[in-house]
Specification:
The chain is mostly helical and 125 residues long. It has four helices and no strands. α1 runs antiparallel to α2, α1 packs across α3 and α3 packs antiparallel against α4. The longest helix is centred in the N-terminal third of the chain and has 33 residues. The N and C termini lie far apart (67 Å).
Length: 125
């Protein structure tokens, strides 16, 4: 009786296709928005509405460079999650399921989300 042993897979050597990479980033961006974006956004919104002093504090916090980097990351997460979500909705409607169209739409998601992040990030900074 020959038992086949499990094959060792080195996960650092496996090259993911672009659609898989977009899918993983879609999940990561969703978790980041849920765990960081919503609580931070609600806290800063509440702070800005509490009083005039709170609004000034919000302005000082939002003007800090590290906070702007966090905002930039959250902006990318939102834009990527939005663009990838539209792509996944079209795939659910059985549009663009062919291999070449799926690869090109996933590449378009990456490019569009990064370009929009740069354009809106320049205005944020």
């Amino acid at each position: 009786m020959n038992k086949t042993r499990p094959k060792y897979l080195d996960l650092t050597e496996i090259k993911l296709p672009v659609p898989a990479f977009v899918s993983i980033l879609h999940r990561v961006s969703g978790v980041g928005l849920y765990l960081i974006g919503i609580p931070l956004g609600l806290y800063l919104f509440q702070m800005s509405l509490a009083s005039e002093e709170g609004y000034r504090q919000f302005g000082l916090i939002a003007d800090h460079g590290f906070v702007k980097l966090i905002f930039l990351g959250l902006l990318w997460a939102f834009l990527h999650h939005f663009c990838a979500g539209i792509r996944f909705l079209t795939l659910d409607l059985h549009m663009g399921e062919e291999l070449q169209r799926a690869r090109s739409s996933s590449m378009a998601v990456l490019v569009v989300s990064l370009v929009l992040t740069v354009v809106l990030g320049v205005q944020l900074w």
